[in-house]
Amino acid sequence: MKVFYEKAKVISLKRIGDSYLEIVLENRNIARWGRPANFVLIKGWENYDPLLARPFDIVQADGETGRFMLVIKVTGRGTRLLAKLEDKSEVSVIGPLGKAIEDFSISRIGLLVRGVGAAAVVLLAEKARERGIEVYTFLSASTGSRLVCRELLEKYSTEIEIATDDGTIGYHGDARERVSAYLDEPGFDRLYTCGSRRFARFVKDMDKQGRIEGYLFLETYMACGMGDCHGCAVGKATGEGYYLVCKDGPVFRSSDVVID
Amino acid sequence: MASLEVEIAGIRLKNPVMPASGAYEYSEERKSFFSPGELGAIINKTIFLEKRIGNPPPRIVETPCGMLNAIGIPTGGIEDFIETQLPKMESFGVPIIASVAGNSIEDFLEVSERVAETGKVSFIELNLSCPNLSEGIEWARDRKQLFSVIERVKASVDIPIIAKLSPMVSDVAEMAAVSEDAGADAVALINTYKGMVIDIEEKKPLLGNLTGGLSGPAIHPLAVYAVFSSYRKIKIPIIGIGGIASWSNAVEMILAGATAVGIGMYNFVNPMVMKEVIEGISNYLDDNGFNSVKEIVGLAHRLG
Prior knowledge:
Strand order of the largest sheet of chain B: 3-16-15-10-9-8-7-4
Low-confidence stretches of chain B: none
Number of strands of chain A: 16
Largest sheet of chain B: 8 strands, parallel
Strand content of chain B: 15-25%
Strand content of chain A: 25-35%
Order of helices and strands of chain A: EEHEEEEHEEHEHEEHEHEEEE
Structural class of chain B: alpha/beta
Helix content of chain A: 10-25%
Shape of chain B: globular
Number of helices of chain A: 6
Radius of gyration of chain B: 18 Å
Distance between the termini of chain B: 29 Å
Structural class of chain A: alpha/beta
Shape of chain A: globular
Low-confidence stretches of chain A: none
Number of helices of chain B: 9
Oligomer: heterodimer
Strand order of the largest sheet of chain A: 4-3-7-1-2-6-5
Number of strands of chain B: 16
């Protein structure tokens, strides 16, 4: 796949809650070619410290306006620098990266996501709905202010269930309980998850029991994003070596990989 | 326009820029940026006789102006190299360096002989300095072993040998001199420095392998010094590697005594870096009135 290394202009930067950031960037090629599960590497500073660009999922991509959106959890040095970007400043972008989800020969999917992991599935929800696929979303967070991409997921989902650990919004408790209520009826052709190890283990279990086809969006530290550095390894379930999250993923069938 | 052509062991490189082993795959993604055929030479990720799976994650961690990697060289082995990688590399029409390693001198000999037998490789680079293998760095640390492995490979293949050395020694220039005495046609300086990051939450080393090799701009001045000090002791060409992130970093290396330069981790940050370095060296030569890059190799020694 063609990968671009270009500048992207900062169109807007919006703080969401206490720890998230929504960034709209302008770059025609990323906006044109970004597909579900693709990600980009962003560097918004010139010097060598921090040295590496940071990987983020493409949340929205609009080929007509040339704009794309990222949702970022401000958590370390790189993301704190991105939080300080000013409108009309420029960042460098490498992408689209990762293996896109291209197979939509299905009728119903479930999305089980938590925290900033929700950002990974928005484009999938949008593109699936465009193709007439039913999208059931289970959006979870510790508390209401940490629900990420809620409006977008409400827009693209056929049905959405929200769960918070403290009950501030939606179901008071674990989103897995809500998913379980749907597993047999209506059931999902595929269940995707992102943002929680517990969720990943749950999806893996359900897959193993033959109740769904489970898929994991994996997130990990990476340097190059295209298979050169071999930094983002995840163990193969067969025990024979590793996949690279950047190039073999970021989405894996749950039965193919080892989750701690 | 000044000539960028250089020569190592009688083999002409159209420019002095190449990837450092292990940091650049000849993939479709990479071809999006420029063709590897524009480089002076190309090199593979080190192969052993057997397939290797590499180290458990986490394998990388960022450090100030650098990164530690503990990848552990996951590669397909000699068969995979000959059948899959080599045809791909050949298609670019530039000299190929085969990076090889082994767990014993016999391994080094066998993998080198098999690579040389293909007749498609211009150089063999002996990776004597991987800090992520239990015995990896030892080859470049022990004078006798270093001499012996180079001498024996040199005697058994008919293509030039490059010794990739470690900076984790008391004097890398001494080891470069040992390599020259043993028959190496060139040395590649330097491999990464062994380092560690502790995860203060988990209260244990962060990397799966505990230690990793430090690369990136942080080590550039150390690499320049390794090249500078070795240039005074040896006559064979030096390939300067370590923290090159720009054309000016590469020019420094050449002025210090490198005939060519290898670029590693910065390919991760700037996918265009090698092409920018080729153009930058060319502009530097023109701006400073030189006709050939060969004129500036080791020029920093005039006053030193």
